[in-house]
Structure formats: C-alpha cells, structure tokens
Amino acid sequence: MVAVFNKELLSWYLITLKLKETVEAGTPKIQSPITTRSIELQEQPQQRQRSDLLQVVINGETENVEEGPKSPESEWVICIKEKLEQAHQDDAAGSWAKLCIYRVPHCLREGDDKAYIPQIVSLGPYHHGRRRLRNMDRHKWRSLDHILRRRNQDIKLYLDSVKELEERARACYEGAISFSSNEFVEMMVLDGCFVLELFRGAAEGFNHLGYSRNDPIFAMRGSMHSIQRDMIMIENQIPLFILDRLLGLQYDQPKQTGLLVKLALHFFDPLMPTDEPLTKSDRNRLESSLGYTTTTTFDPLADQGGLHCLDIFRRSLLRRGPIPEPRIWIRRWSHASRVADKRRQQLIHCVTELREAGIKFKKRKTDRFWDIKFKDGILKIPRLLIHDGTKSLFLNLIAFEQCHLDCSNDITSYVIFMDNLINSAADVNRYYDHRWNAWRASLKHNYFSNPWAIISFVAAVVLLLLTFAQTFYGVYGYYNPRS
Length: 483
Fold this sequence. Notes:
Blueprint: H1 7-25, H2 33-36, H3 45-49, E1 52-58, E2 61-68, H4 72-90, H5 106-109, H6 137-151, H7 155-163, H8 166-170, H9 181-204, H10 223-231, H11 240-251, H12 257-267, H13 280-290, H14 309-317, H15 328-334, H16 342-345, H17 351-356, E3 360-364, E4 373-375, E5 378-382, H18 390-403, H19 410-421, H20 426-432, H21 435-447, H22 451-479
Parallel strand pairs: 3-5
Antiparallel strand pairs: 1-2, 4-5
Helix pairs in contact: 6-9, 7-9, 7-11, 9-11, 9-12, 18-19
C-alpha cells in the first residue's frame, strides 16, 4: 500500500487506473471533451463561396471546417463573377418590359433639379419618406379612413387585393426597390387611395365625399395647384392598374379604367397649356381642314392603354383624329432612328431672321398648342398658356419621352422648335416695344372690351368730328366771307 499525501496526484492516479481498466475490458474509450463537442458552422451562402473548406474527420464523420481567408486576388475574381451574375440577371428577357416610371437622368436634371422633385406630396417609392413631404402623410391616412368608413369596408380587402399586383407594380419602377413586401403594399394602398380621393373630390365635390369646406387639403384651395404639379412628375407616379384596382374596390366593380382616365383628365385640366375655347363650328372647320371627322376626337373612355397619370395627360395633349396613311418611302424612314440629329434641330431660324426673310406670323385658332402650320409665307402658331407649373410640366413630359421606348417625341420636338424660334428677347420684345402696337392694345382694352364701350367710343368719335367740322367752317367763314 502506498501512502499518498497529495490529493492532486491521487486524483490523476485514479483516473489513469480507470482508463487502464477500461482498455483491458475492451469498452470504448472515454472521449475527451474536445472531440465530443459538436461543431456547427453557420455561414451565409456568399460567405461560404468565398472560403476554402477543409475536410477533417471528427468522431468518424467527415465535416467541413473553414481553412482561412483567401488571398486578395481570389477575392477580386469572385467579386467580378458576382457582378457578372447580377448583370446577367438584369439582362434577362423581359426584365425591362414593364418599366414605365423612371428616374430622371442626370443629364436632364442639370440646372432644373427642382422641376422633377415634388415639393408637397410624394407618390410611390422614389421620394417616399422625405422629411419635407412627411406632413402630407397624415392627410393620406385621413383620405384612406374616409374611404373605408364611407364604403364600410375592411382595410384587409385593399391590402390583399394590391398584394396580388405587387410583383407587377415593382417591375414598373426603375432600379431596386428597398421596401419590404408589407411596406410596399402599404405605400401603394395609401398613396393610391389619396390620389383617387383627390380625383373624385375634384369631380364630385369634396363636400359630397364628407370633407369640410375649410379642409386644409381636400378643398379647392391655392395649394391644390402645387399638388397637381407634384402629381404630374415622372418620378411621382403610381401605376394605372393599381389605381384601377383600388377604384374598382370602391365601386364593387372591377375594370374602372375608363372612369379613372376621365377623372384624371378632369383633375389635371388646370395644367393644360392652352385655354383656347372653340365653338362647334370652329371645331368642325378645323377637323375638316385637317381631313378628320368630328367623330374621331379624343375619347378617354375608349383608351385602355395608359401607363400612369403623366402618360394619360400626354395622350390628351396630343389627341388627334386618324392620320392619313403615309407614303411608303416616308413610312420606311420615319422611325428608322430614335436618336435626335442635332444638325436637323439647328435648321430652324429665329423669329428675327424669319421676319427679315419676309415670313409673317399669325395666331392659329386651335386648342392644340402643338398644331403649327406654315403656308404661303405665313407661320401660324397656336396660343400657349403659361403658368407657374408650365416649365415643370414640359420638362417632365420631355423626360418621359426620352426615357420610354414606346413613346414618340412630339412634345420634345415642339419645345425644340419653339426654343430655336425664340432665340433672344428681341424675338418677342421687338413686337411688344413697337409704340403703335402698344397703343392699339391699350385702345382695344379700354374702348373695345364690350358692345356698349364700342358704341360710346363711336359716338365720341362722331361728336369729335362734328365739333372739328363746325370749328373749321366757322374759322373758314370768318377769313373768307361770302361776297
């Protein structure tokens, strides 16, 4: 018997004795804590691709263990491959087919950035959450609450219905949309119902919809013009099929596209750049001169192909009857190239040069501001109504035409033509500064504004002539008395 006074040595002795007995008995060895511990490696797929895996045998099983970081060169190659894979996904067939709401390119923004950024209300994901636009959110929630209470409907009906269109709606916007599914659907429902409430209020009356006559937003006040200007911007659009679905839920009837377009055009009518009133006879004469019939005027209820409100507004501006079939050689080359030729744009002379060449200018009586005619040395240009939103309106229309493939360049061509025509202030002030023109305008304003004013003016002229004649004959008789 051995006497052991050290307790630690005694413990090691007992453990060694136990191991010896276990080996001799043929039982499995006691596994060390290190080998019995399970090793779980949880990595993201991208991280696992970037690491070399080393196979080791633990407890008779093969497991993958990360060997260590890769060299900088291999990391670079993997990064390039990931970018190529993303490019392949972006270039997949049909990825751009539904795109119709664009971010304005930087080349168009230079110097006019304010014309594309909403100042009061945001619609859609591009400007959602901006600090200066958050004040409108509470009014959006008020509009949604009015709709649900008016129709006695549950919000879940709207959320579920729009969620069915989520993937299609996301495809309408350019670039990746960082909103989650719930956030995106909530935004579409909230913004869409707000738009529809404005449309219906402008047509039916906000009082009829249950709003107070002194409501800060849902009343035809001065701020409504700024709201209309924001809602027509290319980056501030909601897909038309989303609005159509939401309007259909309010009327318990799907496919309300025709009514939706009619409401939109009525709401945006104050932004129209022309207010030229045409009588029925004037319109018939205009249509017949163009070779059109009166039954082919623009009918929004018959047009089902709109993309969003800006597209509908543009279609209304360019409304026209059937265009005669072009000749074969014209049709062959008319759409051969979509790239603008700067040399062709510079062929238009300014007003001053055209006047010096003998060209005369006259106002054309039509409600189509782009309908410019030149015949027999006379250039007839329709009147263009200018307001504080005209610049933003035309810039957004041009941006849409330049971004969207299936879109003509009619508005762009008109603006380029007018830009070349009015080359300097002298092209307009030359006529304005002429003294006789100013006198004639003042005379027309003061004395020919209504029939009674015309009669008074004629009577005054006659009286003046009679007085002059009486004075003349009186003086003449005094110096040349009858013999």
